[in-house]
Amino acid sequence: MSRIAILMLLWSFAAGLSAAETDPLWARSQAPIKSLMLSPIARPTEYKPKEFLMAASVNPGSVFATDKALDDPEKPYHYELDYYTVEYRLDLRYNPSRRWQLSASYAHRTTDDAHLDQLTLSFHKLFGIDQNGRDRVPKHRYLIDLPMQGERREDFKNRTFAHQFELAASFLAYEYFRHQVAVTASMQYNDQRFIERQGDHLDLGLQLDYSYEWRDHRVNAMLAYLHTGAEQLLGTDTVQNLGHAAMGYRYRLTPRHFLFLEYQFAQGALDGLGPMQDPVHEVNLGYRYQRGELGLDFVMMENALNADNSADIAFNFRVSYRYDAD
Predict the structure, then answer these.
(1) For residue 22, what pLDDT is reported?
(2) Helix (H) or strand (E) holding 19
(3) Most CB atoms closer than 10 Å: which of 41, 153, 193, 209?
(4) 194/106 Cα distance (integer angstroms)
């Protein structure tokens, strides 16, 4: 092999390493209530100065959540939710220095048809996961049934749930050897449409992110506090002060290919609406392809433990581009 070929090979390998993502999975909760307010996510703790990032993502999800006893239809119940939701999001991010990161995003949340019911049924059957009654109702329904509030909505396909605008500022507060801790303050304005939001439209968040990297492995953790201005959603009082947590692991297969596993926890956001007041548990499996400035993400999101307060299954498809001023 010639010297030029060797140099080109070494350069491409080094470029892959330098461009390798240090970000955790950029996957937000798709629980029906959490998705209608600011939802803290694990954020990076390593900022390359003067770097600018643009990203676009599509997040389809299938919601089936109910405390209805299907074997006893006469028994009173609080709610039955069965619909698709699709989030279209644009992200912008800039690092003024190696200690600061500024970010903004806009999300358009709709009830577009995601065609996920059969996939959800097949996935649950394949892995022996309880169908939770989904196999006893028609596919592709659009239903929000709140009998105790006297409210029932059907056939709301292709409606707008919300427009959401988020701003955040992150600061690298601690760095030692392979350890990093960052602090992020964020706020989100919620322009709620189909599902009414009683109270203020603004949500505020504060979080700590920790990361540790060793060779091809990276571990991250997040603790967050959220104050939502919403006083009621789905005609029910909200819990306005909420705690969130996440743990994530990233493995670098090659300089361009990464695998992710992430667990997210959030306190229940509604007070007195059956299982909606229970904690939300979500498990995310992800893959990232990174080549130079371009990144492609695929994430599969699955609820865990409490089946009746989060999306049955959701996906995230994201493309990002990094521009380095240097």
Answers:
(1) 78
(2) helix 3-19
(3) 209
(4) 18
Here the CATH number for the domain that contains residue 13 is: 2.40.160.40
Task: Give the integer Cα–Cα distance in Å for 321 and 56.
Answer: 9
pLDDT of residue 324: 80
CA distance 28 to 321: 19
Check whether 135 has a pLDDT greater than 90: no
For residue 284, give its domain range.
3-324
Predicted model pTM: 0.87
User: What whole-number distance in Å separates Cα of residue 310 and Cα of residue 116?
Assistant: 15
Instruction: Report phi then psi at 287, rounded to 5.
Output: -135, 140
Nearest to 39 by CA among 277, 302, 312, 282: 282
* pLDDT recorded at residue 123: 65
- Structural domains in the chain (count): 1
Burial 12-25 (b: 16+ CB within 10 A, else e): eeeebeebbbebbb
Structure tokens, 299: 């994430």
Quote the CA–CA distance of 129 and 70 in Å, as a whole number. 17
The separation between the first and the last C-alpha atoms of the chain, rounded to the nearest angstrom, is 32
Whole-number pLDDT of residue 137? 73
Residues 31 and 309 sit within 8 Å (Cβ to Cβ): yes
pLDDT-derived band at 283 (thresholds 50, 70, 90) equals very high
User: Residue 155: exposed, middle, or buried by beta-carbon count in 10 A (0-12, 13-18, 19+)?
Assistant: exposed
What one-letter code names the amino acid at 254?
A: T
Could you give phi then psi for residue 137, rounded to 5 degrees? -125, 160
Q: Distance between CA 260 and CA 300 in Å, rounded?
A: 10
Proportion of the chain above pLDDT 70, given as a percent: 87
Q: ∠ at Cα 284 (239, 295), nearest 5°?
A: 115
Q: What is the mean pLDDT of residues 168-190?
A: 96
Specify the length of the chain in residues: 326
* Among 158, 215, 175, 239, residue whose Cα is nearest residue 44: 175
5: pLDDT confidence band, cut at 50, 70 and 90?
Answer: very low
**Model pLDDT, residue 11:** 38
